[in-house]
């Protein structure tokens, strides 16, 4: 689960709870990122590709 710590649509705590309930799930809090994921695009792509190739 990728979650921006400045997301005003879905609180980061909700993302963490979801990730904790998914077997093998992980939670990555992205500092300074909001709901649109435009600030840390490289990190988001890296994490997404790592997940898809696992």
UniProtKB/TrEMBL annotation:
Q: Which domain of life is it from?
A: Archaea
Keywords per UniProt: Hydrolase
Instruction: Kindly give the Gene3D superfamilies that the UniProt entry links to this protein.
Output: alpha/beta hydrolase (3.40.50.1820)
GO terms of molecular function: hydrolase activity
| InterPro entries membership | AB_hydrolase_fold (IPR029058)
Query: What is this protein identified as?
Result: Alpha/beta fold hydrolase
What organism is the protein native to? Halovenus salina
Recite the lineage of the species. Answer: Archaea, Methanobacteriati, Methanobacteriota, Stenosarchaea group, Halobacteria
């Amino acid at each position: 689960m990728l979650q921006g710590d400045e997301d005003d649509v879905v609180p980061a705590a909700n993302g963490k709870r979801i990730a904790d309930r998914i077997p093998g799930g992980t939670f990555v809090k992205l500092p300074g990122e909001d709901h649109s994921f435009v600030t840390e695009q490289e990190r988001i792509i890296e994490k997404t590709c790592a997940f898809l190739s696992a």
